[in-house]
Write a structure and sequence with these properties.
single chain; 441 residues; alpha/beta; FAD/NAD(P)-binding domain; 5-stranded parallel beta sheet; 12 helices; 31% helix; globular; binds flavin-adenine dinucleotide
């Protein structure tokens, strides 16, 4: 473990801010901070910023992982990299509140101010054994794992003559009918409806089944009933079944048991049902942890009861914003706006009052398949093709890097007109033999 050059601030007059996590919140905070006033160190376990809203497209072979990722070193170069901002790779495991130090697997880093923006991880609601058997979409690596196993199953099934075995392999259960669940199920539906016949002619369309299991009485329950109804209709045209009012109780030996006791076969379970905040081993004090493992902050994103520590985005829980007394939804816009507000507050002269965070809700959206979506903006609700164009525009604008925007747009247009993608390539790590993988699935 290193302690040298990272352990003490090089310029005594400049305070060191350590930012844990370069997602929407952490990166937007750094972008807007007046870097000449501080020495900033971003610590992230990945050396790139990723774009979770499009993980499902990586998982369904619609986009290559690189097109929704952007290297921190390039992004930070634009923002004073090598002068006042730098990136250190590492997963923060421990925070010493008394010593003002964070510890990764590689080093100890001291801070004057700490910004915690590490987001969330999968929540299995106590059924931790599921972690080993289900597929998740919380990171690029998880999305790639999901993609490889979907493709593995299709290749394997295409060689089986026994229809029962083919069906076992190609029974997909998506747990959670929120935007991610609806989006991945829709993408699988597109595969079933349009890709199977063209690329896997030995597989019958009925060999593949996709079911969403959702605990509420409708999909997309955070959106209006109208949007839910449209999404359900689009899903049914893509041959996706929806089971409402049921949660998953267990998943053992290829069988999912639901809360009403009923059972269903599931070759592959994709878990999109919930998240919890990333946790740390905290020494020399404690963080105020509340609902969903989130860190309680005041209206300025300062961690309650602690000086010089802030939490931003999905990992924090704020009740001071009048319109959101139960905390903000865990969405990209909340994280972006909180990052920007905290930077502005730290940029202010000490004599000026800091500004309390107020979330400007710009709306929500979800896409179903290749060319339909539901979109709710402040004063407007649209669905279908126009909604899909809006969804496309918003996501393209949010991606980092011009190359990524162009590549993603080309991919979407190509897929729209041809259903073709060159991304259904199955590239296994060389030390992981194919037969071993097939024995596992
Ligand atoms: C599949 C999926 C789809 C989504 N779709 C939408 C959508 O359509 N619209 C929307 O508004 N929101 C969507 N969200 C939610 C949105 O992505 C989050 O609200 C947003 O990413 C939160 O930003 P953040 O900066 O708080 O955390 P994140 O963006 O998750 O960033 C956290 C960063 O911290 C790093 N990190 C984590 N732990 C550590 C550690 N211990 N040490 C160092 N680094 C660490 C991670 O590598 C990551 O870079 C989606 C989320 C997922 C998972």
């Amino acid at each position: 473990m290193t302690q040298s050059n990272s352990n003490s601030s090089t310029t005594p007059s400049r305070q060191r801010i350590v930012v844990i996590g370069g997602g929407f919140a952490g990166l937007n905070f750094i972008k807007r901070l007046k870097k000449q006033n501080y020495e900033v160190i971003l610590v992230d376990s990945n050396n790139f910023n990723s774009f979770p809203p499009l993980f499902y497209q990586v998982a369904s072979s619609g986009l290559e992982p690189a097109s929704i990722s952007f290297p921190f070193r390039r992004e930070l170069r634009k923002r004073g990299f090598n002068r006042n901002v730098r990136y250190n790779m590492g997963r923060v495991k421990t925070i010493h509140l008394d010593r003002k130090v964070v510890v990764t697997q590689f080093e100890e880093l001291s801070y004057d101010k700490l910004v915690i923006a590490a987001g969330t991880t999968n929540n299995f609601f106590g059924m931790n054994e599921l972690e080993k058997s289900v597929y998740t979409l919380k990171s690029t690596a998880e999305a790639i794992r999901c993609r490889n196993d979907i493709l593995d199953r299709l290749e394997h099934a295409s060689m089986l003559s026994d229809p029962k075995k083919r069906r076992e392999l190609l029974t997909f259960v998506v747990v959670g009918g929120g935007p991610t669940g609806v989006e991945i199920a829709g993408a699988l539906g597109e595969m079933k409806k349009y890709v199977l016949k063209r690329e896997y002619p030995t597989i019958d369309i009925d060999d593949m089944s996709i079911t969403i299991v959702e605990g509420a009485d409708r999909v997309l329950r955070t959106m209006s009933e109208d949007s839910s109804t449209h999404a359900a209709k689009y899903l049914s045209t893509l041959l996706v079944d929806v089971k409402l009012g049921q949660n998953v109780k267990s998943y053992v030996d290829g069988t999912v048991e639901l809360t009403d006791g009923s059972k269903m076969n599931a070759g592959m379970v994709i878990w999109t049902a919930g998240v919890k905040a990333v946790g740390f081993d905290v020494k020399g004090g404690s963080l105020p942890i509340t609902r969903g493992g989130r860190i309680e902050v005041d209206g300025f994103n300062k961690v309650v009861g602690l000086d010089d520590i802030y939490a931003l985005g999905d990992i924090c829980f704020m009740t001071a914003d009048k319109a959101f007394p139960q905390g903000h939804p865990q969405l990209a816009q909340v994280a972006i706006q909180q990052g920007a507000n905290l930077a502005k507050n730290l940029n202010r002269k000490p004599s000026k009052q800091p500004k309390q965070f107020v979330y400007n809700d710009k709306g929500s959206m979800a896409t179903v398949g290749r060319n339909r979506a539901v979109v709710e903006l402040k004063h407007m609700q649209i669905n279908g093709f126009m909604a899909w164009l809006t969804w496309m525009f918003v996501h393209l604008m949010s991606l980092l890097g011009m190359r990524n925007k162009v590549v993603v747009l080309c991919n979407w247009l190509w897929a729209y007109f041809t259903y073709g993608t060159s991304l259904r390539l199955l590239i296994h790590p060389s030390k992981y033999p194919l037969r071993k993988r097939w024995e596992e699935i």
